[in-house]
Amino acid sequence: LGPSPICSVVFTHQCTCGRRLGTRVAYLLPMVIVLPDTMLPATWMQFAADCVLMCIVNDFFLYWGHRIQHENKWLWENFHSLHHTINTPTPWSTIYIHPVDASLQGAIPIITAALAVQPSLLSFYAFVAFRVSENAANHSGLDGVTALDVAFLKILPLRADFKHHDYHHRFSNYAGNAKNFGEGFWFWDWIFGSLSTRTPNGNTPTSGPSTAGNGMELAEKKAA
After folding, report:
1. CA nearest neighbour of 76 among 167, 181, 176
2. I need a labelling partner for 66 at 20 to 30 A (CA). Which of 84, 105, 165, 199 fits?
3. 185: three-class secondary structure by DSSP
4. Residues 6+ apart with CB under 8 A from 8
5. Tally of CA atoms within 13 A in the half-sphere of 89 that contains its CB
6. pTM of the predicted model, to two decimals?
7. What is the pLDDT along the chain (224 residues), one digit of tens a residue?
C-alpha cells in the first residue's frame, strides 16, 4: 500500500470534510509513509484485526485532535467552533467544518492509523469507508435504531452509541471542560476523564440497550 491509494481515499474524505488545508495534509503526509504493496490481507482474520486496530488507533488520535480544539481557546475560536454552530447535528453537518478541524479529526488520525497498523489495501479502504459512514451516522440523531446499531457495531462492548456524540453537541458547545470527544469508542473519554452520558433533562441514563449494552453506564458509575 503506497502513497497513491492513501492519498486518493483521504483526499476524497477531506473533500467532504474540509477542502484546501485538509487536502494538502492528506497529500503531503502519506508521502512519508511506506506501506507494503499488498491488495488483499493474508487471511480474513488479518483483515478483521487490521480494521479493528485502525479503528482504535484512529479514535485515539481523533479524541485528542478533537479535545485540543476545545481546550485551546485559539483553536476553538478559529476552527472548531464553526462545526458547533450546528446545535442539532445531521449527516450533512459533517461537511460544515473548518479544514484545520477536518485535518485534526480526519486526515491525521486516518493516516496515523494506517502507518501504525500497516494494513493491506482492502483493509485500508474498508476502514476509511466505515469511518466516513460512521461519522455521518454519529450526526444522524437516530439512536436506538437496531439496524444502524448492528451495521455500525454499536452493539459491541466499548463502542460509543449515537447518543455519545449527540450529547457532545448538545452540552459541549464551548471551549474548556467539554465532554464526549471520542466517536468510535467511549473508553478514551472514560480513561481521560471526559465521559458523560447525561440526558437532555440532566439525568444519567439508568437503563436501555445503548448504555447498559456497551458498558457506558458502568464506566460512568466507576468514574463518579
Report:
1. 176
2. 199
3. strand
4. none
5. 28
6. 0.76
7. 444 444 444 444 444 444 444 454 445 545 545 555 667 888 999 999 999 999 999 999 999 999 999 999 999 999 999 999 887 778 888 888 999 999 999 989 998 999 899 888 888 889 999 999 999 888 887 878 888 899 999 999 999 998 898 889 888 888 888 999 999 999 999 999 999 866 544 444 332 334 434 444 444 444 44
Give the H/E segment covering residue 184. none
Residue 62's CB is within 10 A of a number of other CB atoms, namely 26
Buried b / exposed e over 115-136, threshold 16 CB at 10 Å, is: bebbbbbbbbbbbbebbbebbb
- The residues that bridge with 159 in the sheet, in sequence order, are 185
Run of H or E residues at 157: none
Which residues, including other chains, have CB under 8 Å from residue 133's CB and lie 6 or more apart?
A: 152
DSSP string, 28-92: HGGGG------SS-SSHHHHHHHHHHHHHHHHHHHHHHHHHHHHSHHHHHHTGGGGGG-SS--GG
Q: List the beta bridge partners of residue 185.
A: 159
- Which residue type is seen at 119? P
Measure the CA–CA gap between 69 and 118, rounded to whole angstroms.
28
Helix (H) or strand (E) holding 138: helix 121-138
